[in-house]
Amino acid sequence: MEFQERLSRYVEEIEQALDQYLMTFGCNGQEKIVEAMRYSALAGGKRLRPVLTMEFCRAVGGDPYAALPFACALEMIHTYSLIHDDLPCMDNDDLRRGKPTNHKVYGEGMAVLAGDSLLTYAFETAARGMNGSDVTAQQAVEAIGILAHEAGYYGMIGGQVLDLAAEHQTLTYEELVNLQDKKTGGLIRAAAEMGCVLGYATEEQREAAKTYANRLGLAFQIQDDILDIEGDEAVFGKPIGSDEKSGKSTFPGLMGVETCRKMVQDLTDEAVCAVKTLPESDFLVQLAESLVGRKK
Predict the structure, then answer these.
(1) Do the strands 95-96 and 99-100 form a parallel or antiparallel pair, or are they unpaired?
(2) DSSP 224-264
(3) Which residues form a coiled coil (predicted)?
(4) Using one digit for the tens of pLDDT, what is the confidence trace for 103-117?
(5) At residue 241, what are phi and psi to the nearest 5 degrees?
(6) Domain ranges of the chain
(7) How is 132-159 classified by DSSP, letter by letter?
(8) Can you give the pTM of this predicted structure?
(9) pLDDT for 266-284, tens place per residue?
(10) Which residues contact 221 (CB under 8 A, 6 or more apart)?
(11) How far is it, in rounded angstroms, from Cα 74 to Cα 187?
(12) Looking at the domain 3-293, which fold is it?
Protein backbone atom coordinates (compact mmCIF):
# COMPACT_ATOMS: atom_id res chain seq x y z
CA MET A 1 0.00 0.00 0.00
CA GLU A 2 1.32 3.44 -0.93
CA PHE A 3 2.22 5.95 1.80
CA GLN A 4 -0.58 8.43 1.12
CA GLU A 5 -3.20 5.69 0.86
CA ARG A 6 -2.16 4.15 4.18
CA LEU A 7 -1.99 7.57 5.86
CA SER A 8 -5.47 8.49 4.61
CA ARG A 9 -6.83 5.16 5.79
CA TYR A 10 -5.33 5.60 9.26
CA VAL A 11 -6.71 9.13 9.58
CA GLU A 12 -10.15 8.01 8.42
CA GLU A 13 -10.21 5.14 10.94
CA ILE A 14 -9.08 7.46 13.73
CA GLU A 15 -11.71 10.09 12.84
CA GLN A 16 -14.47 7.48 12.75
CA ALA A 17 -13.38 5.91 16.03
CA LEU A 18 -13.20 9.28 17.81
CA ASP A 19 -16.66 10.13 16.51
CA GLN A 20 -18.01 6.82 17.84
CA TYR A 21 -16.31 7.11 21.22
CA LEU A 22 -17.66 10.61 21.75
CA MET A 23 -21.18 9.62 20.68
CA THR A 24 -21.51 7.40 23.75
CA PHE A 25 -21.93 10.52 25.86
CA GLY A 26 -24.74 13.03 25.82
CA CYS A 27 -27.31 11.56 28.17
CA ASN A 28 -28.84 13.06 31.31
CA GLY A 29 -28.47 16.70 30.34
CA GLN A 30 -24.76 16.55 29.55
CA GLU A 31 -25.12 17.46 25.88
CA LYS A 32 -23.25 20.77 26.15
CA ILE A 33 -20.04 19.26 27.53
CA VAL A 34 -20.11 16.55 24.85
CA GLU A 35 -20.62 19.21 22.20
CA ALA A 36 -17.58 21.10 23.51
CA MET A 37 -15.48 17.91 23.58
CA ARG A 38 -16.49 16.99 20.05
CA TYR A 39 -15.89 20.53 18.79
CA SER A 40 -12.17 20.25 19.47
CA ALA A 41 -11.63 16.50 19.17
CA LEU A 42 -13.23 16.36 15.71
CA ALA A 43 -11.78 19.62 14.39
CA GLY A 44 -9.35 17.85 12.06
CA GLY A 45 -5.60 18.12 12.27
CA LYS A 46 -2.76 15.87 11.17
CA ARG A 47 -3.54 13.10 13.70
CA LEU A 48 0.23 12.54 13.79
CA ARG A 49 0.34 10.96 17.24
CA PRO A 50 -2.39 8.32 16.78
CA VAL A 51 -1.04 7.52 13.31
CA LEU A 52 2.36 6.87 14.89
CA THR A 53 0.82 4.57 17.49
CA MET A 54 -0.91 2.46 14.86
CA GLU A 55 2.02 2.40 12.46
CA PHE A 56 4.65 1.50 15.06
CA CYS A 57 2.43 -1.40 16.09
CA ARG A 58 2.33 -2.54 12.45
CA ALA A 59 6.02 -1.82 11.82
CA VAL A 60 7.13 -4.27 14.51
CA GLY A 61 4.71 -6.99 13.38
CA GLY A 62 1.51 -6.24 15.30
CA ASP A 63 -2.08 -5.49 14.27
CA PRO A 64 -2.44 -1.70 13.94
CA TYR A 65 -6.19 -1.86 14.54
CA ALA A 66 -5.64 -3.47 17.95
CA ALA A 67 -3.83 -0.23 18.80
CA LEU A 68 -6.71 2.01 17.63
CA PRO A 69 -8.35 2.56 21.07
CA PHE A 70 -4.98 3.52 22.54
CA ALA A 71 -4.29 5.80 19.58
CA CYS A 72 -7.62 7.54 20.14
CA ALA A 73 -6.90 7.88 23.86
CA LEU A 74 -3.64 9.60 22.99
CA GLU A 75 -5.42 11.97 20.61
CA MET A 76 -7.98 12.83 23.29
CA ILE A 77 -5.15 13.80 25.63
CA HIS A 78 -3.48 15.84 22.90
CA THR A 79 -6.79 17.61 22.25
CA TYR A 80 -7.36 18.38 25.92
CA SER A 81 -3.88 19.87 26.09
CA LEU A 82 -4.67 22.17 23.15
CA ILE A 83 -7.94 23.33 24.73
CA HIS A 84 -6.15 24.21 27.96
CA ASP A 85 -3.12 25.66 26.16
CA ASP A 86 -5.39 28.16 24.38
CA LEU A 87 -7.02 29.44 27.58
CA PRO A 88 -6.53 33.07 28.66
CA CYS A 89 -4.47 31.91 31.65
CA MET A 90 -2.08 30.08 29.31
CA ASP A 91 -1.42 31.25 25.72
CA ASN A 92 -4.70 33.19 25.33
CA ASP A 93 -5.17 32.19 21.68
CA ASP A 94 -8.36 32.84 19.72
CA LEU A 95 -7.76 30.50 16.76
CA ARG A 96 -6.93 26.79 16.52
CA ARG A 97 -6.99 24.68 13.35
CA GLY A 98 -8.61 27.59 11.54
CA LYS A 99 -11.55 27.81 13.96
CA PRO A 100 -12.28 29.84 17.11
CA THR A 101 -10.73 28.19 20.14
CA ASN A 102 -12.91 26.18 22.50
CA HIS A 103 -13.21 28.85 25.18
CA LYS A 104 -14.21 31.43 22.57
CA VAL A 105 -17.17 29.27 21.59
CA TYR A 106 -18.21 27.65 24.88
CA GLY A 107 -16.75 29.93 27.53
CA GLU A 108 -13.71 29.50 29.72
CA GLY A 109 -15.34 27.31 32.36
CA MET A 110 -16.84 24.88 29.85
CA ALA A 111 -13.52 24.71 27.98
CA VAL A 112 -11.71 23.72 31.17
CA LEU A 113 -14.30 21.01 31.80
CA ALA A 114 -14.18 19.79 28.19
CA GLY A 115 -10.43 19.36 28.49
CA ASP A 116 -10.75 17.62 31.86
CA SER A 117 -13.39 15.29 30.47
CA LEU A 118 -11.28 14.36 27.43
CA LEU A 119 -8.36 13.58 29.73
CA THR A 120 -10.34 11.26 31.99
CA TYR A 121 -12.24 9.63 29.12
CA ALA A 122 -8.93 8.95 27.39
CA PHE A 123 -7.88 6.61 30.18
CA GLU A 124 -11.29 4.93 30.20
CA THR A 125 -10.96 4.39 26.44
CA ALA A 126 -7.47 2.93 26.80
CA ALA A 127 -8.47 0.73 29.75
CA ARG A 128 -11.20 -0.81 27.62
CA GLY A 129 -8.85 -1.15 24.67
CA MET A 130 -8.23 -4.84 25.10
CA ASN A 131 -11.92 -5.75 24.85
CA GLY A 132 -12.50 -7.80 21.71
CA SER A 133 -8.85 -7.68 20.65
CA ASP A 134 -5.65 -9.64 21.13
CA VAL A 135 -4.23 -7.00 23.47
CA THR A 136 -3.37 -8.57 26.82
CA ALA A 137 -3.96 -6.98 30.21
CA GLN A 138 -0.19 -6.69 30.67
CA GLN A 139 0.19 -4.83 27.36
CA ALA A 140 -2.72 -2.52 28.17
CA VAL A 141 -1.35 -1.67 31.61
CA GLU A 142 2.12 -0.96 30.21
CA ALA A 143 0.72 1.19 27.39
CA ILE A 144 -1.46 3.17 29.80
CA GLY A 145 1.52 3.66 32.10
CA ILE A 146 3.57 5.08 29.22
CA LEU A 147 0.72 7.42 28.27
CA ALA A 148 0.25 8.67 31.83
CA HIS A 149 4.00 9.18 32.29
CA GLU A 150 4.50 11.21 29.11
CA ALA A 151 1.27 13.20 29.55
CA GLY A 152 2.07 14.16 33.14
CA TYR A 153 4.71 16.18 34.93
CA TYR A 154 7.54 14.02 33.58
CA GLY A 155 6.43 14.93 30.06
CA MET A 156 3.82 17.26 28.56
CA ILE A 157 2.64 18.95 31.77
CA GLY A 158 6.22 19.37 32.93
CA GLY A 159 7.03 21.07 29.65
CA GLN A 160 4.08 23.42 30.00
CA VAL A 161 5.24 24.34 33.52
CA LEU A 162 8.68 25.20 32.12
CA ASP A 163 7.02 27.14 29.29
CA LEU A 164 4.99 29.29 31.69
CA ALA A 165 8.02 29.93 33.89
CA ALA A 166 10.12 30.95 30.88
CA GLU A 167 7.85 33.69 29.52
CA HIS A 168 9.76 36.94 28.89
CA GLN A 169 13.04 35.14 29.57
CA THR A 170 15.77 34.15 27.14
CA LEU A 171 16.44 30.44 27.43
CA THR A 172 19.65 28.73 26.42
CA TYR A 173 19.54 26.15 23.64
CA GLU A 174 19.81 23.33 26.19
CA GLU A 175 16.96 24.75 28.28
CA LEU A 176 14.73 25.13 25.23
CA VAL A 177 15.46 21.59 24.05
CA ASN A 178 14.58 20.26 27.51
CA LEU A 179 11.32 22.23 27.54
CA GLN A 180 10.22 21.07 24.11
CA ASP A 181 11.38 17.48 24.71
CA LYS A 182 8.72 17.38 27.40
CA LYS A 183 5.96 19.63 26.05
CA THR A 184 5.94 18.48 22.42
CA GLY A 185 8.12 15.39 22.53
CA GLY A 186 6.33 13.64 25.37
CA LEU A 187 3.20 12.57 23.50
CA ILE A 188 5.13 11.78 20.31
CA ARG A 189 7.38 9.52 22.36
CA ALA A 190 4.31 7.96 23.99
CA ALA A 191 2.81 7.28 20.56
CA ALA A 192 5.87 5.37 19.39
CA GLU A 193 6.37 3.46 22.63
CA MET A 194 2.71 2.44 22.98
CA GLY A 195 2.68 1.14 19.42
CA CYS A 196 5.77 -0.92 20.14
CA VAL A 197 4.30 -2.38 23.33
CA LEU A 198 1.07 -3.33 21.58
CA GLY A 199 3.01 -4.87 18.67
CA TYR A 200 5.29 -7.04 20.85
CA ALA A 201 8.45 -5.14 19.90
CA THR A 202 11.89 -6.20 21.09
CA GLU A 203 13.95 -3.92 23.34
CA GLU A 204 16.14 -2.99 20.37
CA GLN A 205 13.06 -2.03 18.35
CA ARG A 206 11.71 0.04 21.22
CA GLU A 207 15.00 1.93 21.50
CA ALA A 208 14.94 2.63 17.76
CA ALA A 209 11.36 3.88 18.04
CA LYS A 210 12.26 6.14 20.95
CA THR A 211 15.18 7.65 19.01
CA TYR A 212 12.91 8.24 16.02
CA ALA A 213 10.27 9.89 18.23
CA ASN A 214 12.78 12.11 20.02
CA ARG A 215 14.31 13.39 16.78
CA LEU A 216 10.94 13.76 15.06
CA GLY A 217 9.44 15.59 18.04
CA LEU A 218 12.22 18.17 18.11
CA ALA A 219 12.15 18.62 14.33
CA PHE A 220 8.37 19.06 14.49
CA GLN A 221 8.65 21.79 17.14
CA ILE A 222 11.41 23.66 15.32
CA GLN A 223 9.31 23.64 12.14
CA ASP A 224 6.36 24.94 14.20
CA ASP A 225 8.57 27.79 15.43
CA ILE A 226 9.52 28.62 11.84
CA LEU A 227 5.86 28.65 10.78
CA ASP A 228 5.01 30.97 13.68
CA ILE A 229 7.31 33.51 12.01
CA GLU A 230 6.67 33.09 8.31
CA GLY A 231 3.64 30.82 7.95
CA ASP A 232 0.33 31.65 6.30
CA GLU A 233 -2.27 31.99 9.06
CA ALA A 234 -5.02 30.66 6.78
CA VAL A 235 -2.97 27.50 6.18
CA PHE A 236 -1.26 27.21 9.58
CA GLY A 237 -4.63 27.42 11.33
CA LYS A 238 -3.56 29.65 14.22
CA PRO A 239 -2.26 33.20 14.67
CA ILE A 240 1.20 33.98 13.31
CA GLY A 241 3.64 35.66 15.69
CA SER A 242 1.93 34.48 18.87
CA ASP A 243 5.20 33.22 20.40
CA GLU A 244 6.86 36.62 20.05
CA LYS A 245 3.81 38.38 21.48
CA SER A 246 3.85 36.03 24.47
CA GLY A 247 7.54 36.65 25.09
CA LYS A 248 8.54 33.04 24.46
CA SER A 249 11.98 31.79 23.52
CA THR A 250 12.01 29.95 20.19
CA PHE A 251 14.62 28.11 18.17
CA PRO A 252 14.62 30.68 15.32
CA GLY A 253 14.93 33.43 17.91
CA LEU A 254 18.06 31.76 19.26
CA MET A 255 19.69 30.58 16.04
CA GLY A 256 17.95 32.14 13.05
CA VAL A 257 15.54 30.62 10.55
CA GLU A 258 18.12 29.21 8.12
CA THR A 259 20.02 27.37 10.84
CA CYS A 260 16.71 25.99 12.06
CA ARG A 261 15.81 24.72 8.59
CA LYS A 262 19.06 22.74 8.53
CA MET A 263 18.35 21.41 12.01
CA VAL A 264 14.93 20.16 10.92
CA GLN A 265 16.52 18.28 8.02
CA ASP A 266 19.36 16.87 10.14
CA LEU A 267 17.01 15.69 12.88
CA THR A 268 14.73 14.10 10.29
CA ASP A 269 17.69 12.28 8.75
CA GLU A 270 18.62 10.93 12.19
CA ALA A 271 15.04 9.77 12.78
CA VAL A 272 15.00 8.00 9.43
CA CYS A 273 18.32 6.31 10.14
CA ALA A 274 17.06 4.98 13.49
CA VAL A 275 13.80 3.58 12.19
CA LYS A 276 15.29 1.74 9.21
CA THR A 277 16.25 -1.07 11.58
CA LEU A 278 12.57 -2.04 11.99
CA PRO A 279 10.95 -4.84 9.95
CA GLU A 280 8.65 -2.32 8.21
CA SER A 281 10.03 1.20 7.99
CA ASP A 282 8.98 2.69 4.64
CA PHE A 283 5.88 4.45 5.97
CA LEU A 284 7.69 5.90 8.99
CA VAL A 285 10.51 7.13 6.76
CA GLN A 286 8.09 8.84 4.39
CA LEU A 287 6.06 10.27 7.27
CA ALA A 288 9.15 11.91 8.77
CA GLU A 289 10.24 13.27 5.40
CA SER A 290 6.75 14.65 4.70
CA LEU A 291 6.96 16.83 7.80
CA VAL A 292 10.07 18.65 6.57
CA GLY A 293 9.00 21.98 5.11
CA ARG A 294 5.34 21.47 6.05
CA LYS A 295 3.09 24.55 5.97
CA LYS A 296 0.73 23.58 8.81
Answers:
(1) antiparallel
(2) HHHHHHH--HHHHSS-TTHHHHTT---HHHHH-HHHHHHHH
(3) none
(4) 999 999 999 999 999
(5) 85, 10
(6) 3-293
(7) TSS--HHHHHHHHHHHHHHHTTTTHHHH
(8) 0.93
(9) 999 999 999 999 999 999 9
(10) 180, 184, 185, 251
(11) 7
(12) Farnesyl Diphosphate Synthase (1.10.600)
